[in-house]
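Structure representation.

___
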Amino acid sequence: MEPQITVGLLTDATGAPLMIEAFEGNRAETKTMIPLIRGFVEAHGIADVVVVADAGMMSEQNLKDIEDAGWSFIVGGKIPEIPYAISQWRKQHPDAEPPDQLVLSQKQVMGVKADTRHRSVYFQYRADRARRTLHGVDQQLTKAANAVAGKTPVKRNRFITLSGARPSINRELEAKVKALAGWKSYVTNLDKPAEFVIGAYHQLWHVEHAFRMSKSDLKARPVYHHKKESIDAHLAVVFAALAVSHHIEQATGWTIKRFVRTFRQYRDVTLTLAGQTITASQPIPADEADILAKINNSDAH
């Protein structure tokens, strides 16, 4: 059986890798983030740290560890129950749809009396997010209705409740999901306005883009190595290529996929005939030459 690994990746605001570390595969992301950040902070002597992450990567203990280390955090995630701020807005506007990008806020107090944690939670409504969610809910409800009516087999569906041998549609869950459609929460211990917190979280798409690139364009997976040294070496090569790819994209404005496809055809060929060496080069058009010049100029700076 091949070894399983978990890769810890710390990036800058553009998604470019700053620090990479490999952990045993049986360690969850919630167990790898804090050691990775602490190692980077200690190595570079950084004092002001703000951790931005999805809620799935952060446990409540992680958030406490971040605060105890003197750091700050911004965490985005789903909303399991209707919060007070949203329920109050609904009561005050019973027949209205929330305006697009409406932001509501409320304070949150966590922990026991001897270890109280004060946080701010921002709830943002996006109309397009609501449309996507409601469309998905309608599809699931249609499948649930067909299953309850006996038209299709009963399959896993969160809106189906099995009461004895007779399935039914969970209308309470339907109402809650529809009431929260379009809303997303952002939790922070920073004393910053909603625009700053939400804007910082939305920069995570750079990191997601970096991971998509590393898995596809850079052929980072699967990894068939059995020694930690080999795994570390493989990851070092992959993420060095990722850093070069980011540099090319920023210098040229092209995606790395377009860059590779365009320049893959240009090669130098060396032939030896009757003791004579001949080098043949395919000429590069002016547009492509301008792209290469941009990279050379960025390197010079």
